[in-house]
Design a protein that fits this description.
CATH superfamily of the largest domain: Bira Bifunctional Protein, Domain 2
Number of helices: 12
Bound molecules: phenylalanine
Shape: elongated
CATH topology of the largest domain: BirA Bifunctional Protein, domain 2
Strand order of the largest sheet: 1-4-5-9-8-7-6
CATH class of the largest domain: Alpha Beta
Structural class: alpha+beta
Number of strands: 9
Number of domains: 2
Strand content: 15-25%
Oligomer: single chain
Radius of gyration: 39 Å
Length: about 350
């Protein structure tokens, strides 16, 4: 037995490098296994004479401890479990890019409208998409079989009884629920998804989004309505925006009007977006019909109010000159990504 053998093994243990758990195991077998180098030295130790035993006994035990410690140390520093021999991760490679989504144009417009009306002191109210006939029609002064119901082709969920369930055709239903629940004065806007049985085309869809608003207090007049809409239009489309009102009809408002804003693309000169008129239609509105107030338990002699409603897809179309409503629902990433940084026109 020679001192150098022990020193050589010590040196090898210190220099030992392993990349995988498999290599650590191979090293363990090489040094500490039944046929390993240390085992061979211990076998040899048994045959040497006493004087030599005194010299090598301690050194051999230390060597064994060091070998075991070194193997344990290598095992612990490797992260792979030894389960796979496949290619190892290369930490210097660039990572998989994580694609960040962007907000949907309809969501952007809804948030903008909500923010504007919040500044005017309106609260946001929400309600169910599956509604009953009462809240969508009856309480809004659409009597049974009234032809005005045909203005809004309805998807029925259940039919045949007095108050069938249906997909709401406008969020005016939320205004009814608000009037039932809240005390006057009321100032709410109701954003939400609505459904109408219409053929899908560039200008119409069976699903779209609205923001409707309701303001009820003592002494509310048409002049208040006009001013609220004018302020809104200027916040939304720019400070030079003009509005005009055209007489219209809704069962739940009287008088009723359709509101146009001055075309912010051609500034009144006439272009293909405003079809040469210089005006773009953006919403419907009117003074809440006394029948509607009374149906929800509000004294129509004491209180009056106005309501308005607009389609978000339409406003987004005007804002970004989107020419086909169907783009909003097709989830084409090339379209959706345009709005991450879309400039206003
Ligand atoms: N509810 C109407 C619609 O969906 C819009 C509207 C709301 C009109 C309030 C007048 C007053 O078409």
């Amino acid at each position: 037995m020679k001192r150098e053998d022990i020193d050589r093994i010590l040196g090898e243990l210190e220099a030992l490098k392993c990349k995988t758990q498999k290599e650590v195991e191979e090293a363990r077998v090489r040094f500490l296994g039944k046929k390993g180098e240390l085992t061979a030295l211990f076998d040899e130790f048994r045959t040497i004479d006493k004087a030599q035993k005194a010299e090598f006994g301690k050194a051999l035990n230390e060597l064994k401890q060091k070998a075991q410690a070194r193997i344990e140390e290598l095992k612990a520093t490797l992260t792979d479990t030894g389960a796979s021999d496949g290619p190892k991760a290369d930490l210097s490679m660039p990572g998989d890019p994580f694609e960040l989504g962007s907000r949907h144009p309809v969501s952007i417009v809804r948030q903008e409208i909500v923010d504007i009306f919040r500044k005017f002191g309106y609260d946001v109210a929400e309600g169910p998409e599956i509604e009953d006939d009462y809240h969508v029609f009856e309480a809004l002064n659409f009597p049974a079989n009234h032809p005005a119901r045909d203005m809004q082709d309805t998807f029925f969920v259940s039919a045949g009884h007095l108050n069938p369930l249906l997909l709401r055709t406008h969020t005016s239903s939320v205004q009814v629920r608000t009037m039932e629940k809240m005390d006057v004065p009321i100032r709410v806007i109701c954003p939400g998804r609505v459904f109408r049985n219409e053929a899908i085309s560039a200008r119409a869809h069976c699903i779209f989004h609205q923001v409707e608003g309701l303001y009820i207090d003592e002494g509310v007049t048409f002049a208040d309505l006009k001013q609220a809409i004018l302020l809104f239009a200027r916040e939304m489309f720019g400070p030079d925006t003009q509005i005009r009102m055209r007489p219209s009809y809704f069962p739940f408002t009287e008088p009723s009007a359709e509101v146009d804003v001055s075309c912010n693309i051609c500034h009144g000169k006439g272009c293909n977006i405003c079809k040469g008129t210089g005006w773009l239609e953006i919403l419907g509105c009117g003074m809440v019909d006394p029948n509607v107030l009374e149906a929800s338990g509000i004294d129509s002699k004491r209180y009056s109010g106005f309501a308005f409603g607009m389609g978000l897809e339409r406003i987004a179309m005007l804002k970004w000159r989107v020419n086909d409503l169907r783009h909003y629902f097709e989830n084409d990433m090339r379209f959706l990504h345009e709005f991450a940084t879309a400039p206003e026109v």
